[in-house]
Amino acid sequence: MRLLRSGFAPLATGLTALAALLVAAPAAQAADAPLRDLAHAKGRAIGTAVTGSKLTGTYGEIAGREFNWLTPGNAMKWESVEPSRGTFNWAEADRIVEFAEANGQQVRGHTLVWHSQNPGWLTNGTWTPAQLSTLLKDHIDTEMTRYKGRVDAWDVVNEPFNEDGTYRSTIWSNGLGTDYIAQALTWARAADPSAELYINDYNVEGVNAKSTALYNLVRSLKQRGVPIDGVGLQAHLILGQVPSTLQQNIQRFADLGVDVHITELDIRMQLPATEAKLTQQAGDYRAVMDACLAVSRCTGVTVWGFTDSDSWIPDWFEGYGAATPYDENFAPKPAYHAIAASLGGGTTEPPGDGCKATYRVVNQWGGGFTGEVRIDCTGAALRAWTAKWDFGAGQRITQAWNASCTQSGTSVTCSNASYNGTVPDGGSVTFGFNASWSGSNPVPVVTLS
Ligand code: 9MR
Questions:
Q1: Residue 5 Cα, ligand 1 centroid: separation in angstroms?
Q2: 115 lines ligand 1 (CB under 6 A)
């Protein structure tokens, strides 16, 4: 894959093993309740990044109907709001905030302190540390004060780390030292005490060196009493590569006493999009949703554009696209139905096909992992069952319990034990296994028969 534009490193493919689940039955055609109603009933956010100029017609209708949070994709970045020093342009940001208010939506402000999309006058200038500090504080004050009480959460600091967990070399870390992060958060709290303050980054979805650096930073900020309310896991993912440690990672941040939001979810695939890829993508979306919903401090999920016609992917990754839940003509894709199903939407199972299998990695360590498959039936029952999947990345089952599993090449077949073949309507059965993995541990599509 070639990176078409600079500034965003392609995702590491190494440890991006897989997490969660897959539904045996195909995703449904019938429309559920809007996603925002389903999310609201669960007390969670379902958000989307938007482009202000597009908020009319079908784009505007879907943005208003389906989502309860909006993030300006670009409109609040420094280069957008202050293209020349002291000359401000709030038009697109205002429009998005007004649209959100008109539609009863909350807003994520994005983003105040970043190395990218800064105005030329700032990046080309020569500044003393004191000047740089004043510039940054004034920027935070000006923007947060403008939207005081109207932006509910801010990505105060964006992408502060390198992949190896060291601090990224930026205008801020170079000029002010790495404590610019604590300073920015402190200024942000003073500017709008009602806003939730986040640090946001990419490739921090699973447990890895970068997410551990973020974890250590948040822990130390909390210890020092620096204001920090949450971490944003961007989640610009690749098809079949939802990290298996996503839920574990979300949980460890939650255990520090901060919220977690999946802030920029998209799942790109090599084009053309085929039915098989869209089915895998639905499973991947579902895995991310389920991991978030499993942790009470995960406030919700925001997709980075809801339609493939408004996604950054094709411009940045040659040959890749189809990363969002709606296609370019605003038709909901299987991923949309997977999000709905995860939020409790009820129309995803055709009649008579009411049993589904949910795959999850319970625990993973170097070279091994424990997996679990849960079979749930609603409106249907089983007297015996067989769950099948493909371990395409070379994983091998070493041991299973509550099922008898065989593996031939990459294909795994697990059948009920003598005592758990029956899954009543409204009931469930779970079996587990240990397996080896190396390189990656992607989520398989589990089919039930
Ligand atoms: O979606 C944004 C795209 O339109 C811009 O061209 C790009 C420029 O950097 O930024 C995109 O959004 C980024 C977000 O602000 C921070 N995380 C990575 C996102 C994708 O690059």
A1: 11
A2: no
For the record, the structure tokens of 219 come out as 């822990």
* Closest-lying ligand 1 atom to the alpha carbon of residue 202: 17
> Which strands, in side-by-side order, build the sheet including 411-416?
403-408, 411-416, 386-390, 447-448
For residue 73, the CA-to-ligand 1 centroid distance in Å is: 7
Cα angle, residue 148 at apex, residues 146 and 151 outer, rounded to 5°: 100
Nearest to 434 by CA among 412, 408, 409: 412
- Decide if 101 is catalytic: no
How sure is the predictor about 347, in pLDDT bands with cuts at 50, 70 and 90? Answer: low
**Identified catalytic residue from 66, 82, 159, 349:** 159
CB 75 within 8 A of CB 93: yes
Place of tokens 């709001």: 81
Of residues 416 and 262, more confidence is placed in 262
224: Cβ contacts below 8 Å, ≥ 6 apart: 182
Count of residues for the chain? 449
Mean pLDDT of 272-300: 98
Render 406-446 in DSSP notation, one character per residue: EEETTEEEEEE-TT---B-TT-EEEEEEEEE-BSB-PPPPP
Sort 254 into a burial class: Cβ within 10 Å, 0-12 / 13-18 / 19+. Answer: middle
- Residue 236, token pair as written in the block: 């610009």
377 against 120, higher pLDDT: 120
Domains and CATH numbers, the chain: 32-345 (3.20.20.80), 348-448 (2.60.40.290)
Q: How far is CA 40 from CA 105, 271, 323, 372, 434, in A?
A: 11, 34, 24, 29, 37
Q: Is 264 in the pocket of ligand 1 (CB under 6 A)?
A: yes
- The H or E element that residue 156 is part of is strand 153-158
Both structure tokens of 324: 């969002």
Around Cβ 369, how many Cβ atoms within 10 Å?
A: 21
Give the tens place of pLDDT for each residue, 356-415. Answer: 888 888 888 899 999 999 999 888 888 888 898 989 889 999 999 999 999 989 999 999
Question: Quick one: which of 424, 376, 421 has its CA closest to 25?
Answer: 376
Give the Å distance between the CA of 311 and the centre of ligand 1. Answer: 9
110 CA: nearest ligand 1 atom: 15
The DSSP result for 253-296, as a single string, is: HHTTT-EEEEEEEEEEEESSP-HHHHHHHHHHHHHHHHHHHTST
- Choose which residue among 51, 70, 71, 74 to substitute to test ligand 1 binding: the one with the highest number of ligand atoms within 8 A of its C-beta: 74
**By C-alpha distance, which of 294, 276, 203, 202 is closest to 239?**
276
